[in-house]
Amino acid sequence: MDSPVRNMEMGGSICFASFHTGVMSEYKLEVTTGDMKHAGTLDNIYVTLFGTEGQSERTKLDNFGIDFRTGKAGTYTVKTTSSLGKLLLVKVEKDPFLIFSEDEWFCSKIEATTPEGDTLLFPCYRWISRGELVELRGGKAMKVCEDDHPLLTEHRKKELASKKSFYQWTILAEELSNISHFRSLSELPSEVHFSASKSAELANTRNVTGLELKIKGLLGSNEKWESIDDMKHIFWFKKTTMSEYVAEHWKEDDFFGFQFLNAVNPNVIKSCSELPRNFPVTDEMVKPFLEQGSSLQTEIEKGKIFLYDQRIMEGIQTREHNGEPLHVTAGLCLLYLNPENKLMPIAIQLHQQPSDQNPIFLPSDSETDWLLAKMFIRNADALDHQVIQHLMKTHLLAEVYTVATLRSLPVIHPIYKLLFPHFRYTLHINTGARTSLFGRNGALSISSPGYNGLVGLMRKALSELTYSSLCLPENIAARGLESIPNFYYRDDGMKLWNIINSFVQAVVGHYYPSDSEVKKDSELQDWISEIFTHGVLGNRASGFPSCFNTVEEVIRFITMVIFTATAQHAAVNNGQYDYNSWMPNGSLLLHKPPPTTKGQSSMQTILETLPDVGETATFAAILWLLSEKYTDEVPLGTYPEERFDEPVVKRMIKEFQAELSYMSEEITERNSKLEIPYTYLNPKQIENSIAI
Asked: Residue 454 in 3-state DSSP?
């Protein structure tokens, strides 16, 4: 697979005269090889230096002994007959040492010291294949209007033309965000591919889970569970403190309410200022569950009533199972913040339109009636979480940001340097998931909606998506949740948003001191235009910008992008095994239809409604895979790749890291006092990109 910048040789387009002065000039190159597995090479490496006054001879980098060993740096000398002037480009070529052996090399960076004593950084951070040439620009970030030499201007144009040809858009499904055109992992270029260690660990996790489930006879079994407790023994060793807590407390109302704030889907409830007309809860129904002497209207006026409205599920297509259609409920759930500051469900209606066949379930109903009602709410919530909040709003939008960045911004652009570390592995995980997880025969196809229903759900969600809902401060304010207590997702998320925003403000402000700098950056404008066109499909009602006019607009948008790819993904991904591996608490599949009358259910009804043994095992294995920790994770704020050469920006990164470290200590201290710690937005637990 050709690289997007392969074969962009500049030497033929610009000719330099060589002036023989009789005095040789020496350039010292420190070449660093990556420290990942198999990063080194035995192949021959050649460089050519380009400057404002000429170019060097093609020079083989060769010291005594073995060169380009994994994790090592070597120093080499390039001699020229005269000074090259200001150093602009380093061309790197790789030729075979052993003809019959393919041997990729991961070049991290080249630091060049000129005869005048100046040191320049040339970041690479990519795999270079045999017969490939790569041209590296200096580490100082440059906008398009700042290139002041024909060689750099031509290099920039050719790089973008090559990348736009290589990274292309395609359609996943009509009316969904566009995706990259790669159909399989084998088509991905090495620079966006998993590391060898991550691929091996991921495969090992799959093998371990699959083997255990086969040994136990769970995988593929269509038997029904004989008891709820039998589900505790799916895996021998994969247990977490939280998953065991959930298995013990999933029936409890206060835990049910707690999850709307601090489990994996904290973006759905809102403050209720008046009851919806289609949810005719009366004072008489809920008075026993309110503070003594109070009323529903009084509690609404006090800001103590909250609503979960699953309207988006209405009309979603479902698949058939054994010749019968499955069901997804578009329910409504009323919640009350009681005097102990516990969020309690007090009324549930399982369809949007009230009728005799659609009763309002209450905590005073039979245990199994109330439990069934909560299970159907949790089922729809699990679908909303997995398909909308997780897949669509983090993975697919991050892919849009990634592809737009690769197509529209050259590697020397300051916004590319700022954002690219937050897109590590995103194309790989998404490309693989389109077959194994989200494809027509993927694991999620056994959910109640099936593949077609999931696509339909995402279509509705994208058509209703707003830019402001992705910006946490506006999201929290719009839902009226600024003051609800014990909302740790909000508390930690707002701190993270502000820390990220301050960092972005510093970096963007450094490169864009005025609004005019934003307006005239054609590459930046092309970037946001591609996101608007391919992300929200040109929907102006979404509030997404189609262009940038001010520095503040750029800061806000980039803050949102980084927050989405790091904190928001961690919030909706990292706790999946904790909360949803216990299938009664949040299944993507329920077999029986929702109850239409009261007093007809039993624990046997619960067992018949839940997924069978094989389906449960499949879902649990997926959640294990998605929640696992892998050794090459890069935590939020860690930038192992040295892409910026400016001391001022390096200082900004250190300040960003210090703020994150202090926040991590605060969260650890708070969590030590909580019965249920909230860890998902601890910066040390947040990966720097969507990588799983």
From this structure: helix
